[in-house]
Specification:
The chain contains 9 helices and no strands.
């Protein structure tokens, strides 16, 4: 794992991991690797180390008494970065997905889109976004939360079905976002 530690640390540092320290995750990853009786089953040490780190994060999130919505999304979306260059097909598919997400963000209500973009795309703090928009931090939190709910509903739940009452409540939101997205693309 030693040759991959800097890359692993960089990957972890780019994640929103509340109450989790990068050093602790790396140390726990080393501890798990050191406790293995055999390592001959490991075909790709880099991927194996990243998967262990991901597992450490997910276990910490499961054990936490309080977990923020952002931490759940971050933990659920942990993707191990590819070790080698992506194929042309993967690059094309990723670009299509990025375009889809950008269209969905563009379809958010104006204030929600502005707060979401400043906070999640540009990485400004909640306080900085509130100052820039001239509203309270609580308002920013609500706008960003609404944006996340809308995007989650539009992108889907990875095959997980929600109860009917929840589905009905978001149907109008999904329809509005999809319509605005199509209008921006000229469809």
């Amino acid at each position: 794992m030693l040759p991959y530690e800097p890359e692993l640390r960089g990957w972890l540092a780019r994640r929103a991991l509340p109450d989790l320290d990068v050093d602790d995750i790396v140390q726990e990853t080393y501890a798990i690797l050191a406790s293995l009786d055999q390592v001959d089953h490991i075909r790709n040490p880099r991927t194996y180390a990243f998967e262990i780190a991901k597992s450490v994060i997910l276990q910490a999130v499961r054990r936490a008494r309080i977990v923020t919505f952002e931490a759940l999304i971050e933990a659920g979306g942990l993707q191990i970065p590819p070790a080698e260059e992506a194929s042309p097909e993967t690059i094309a598919a990723d670009r299509q997905e990025l375009t889809r997400v950008a269209d969905l963000i563009a379809g958010l209500p104006h204030k929600c889109r502005e707060a979401f973009t400043l906070r999640k795309v540009h990485g400004l703090s909640q306080r900085e976004v509130a100052q820039r928009m001239g509203v309270s931090e609580n308002t920013i939190e609500k706008h960003v939360g609404k944006g996340l709910r809308i995007l989650t509903a539009a992108i889907g739940r990875g095959g997980n079905q929600r109860v009917e009452a929840s589905r009905r409540g978001d149907e109008e939101t999904r329809t509005d976002v999809a319509q605005r997205s199509r209008e921006r693309r000229g469809h």
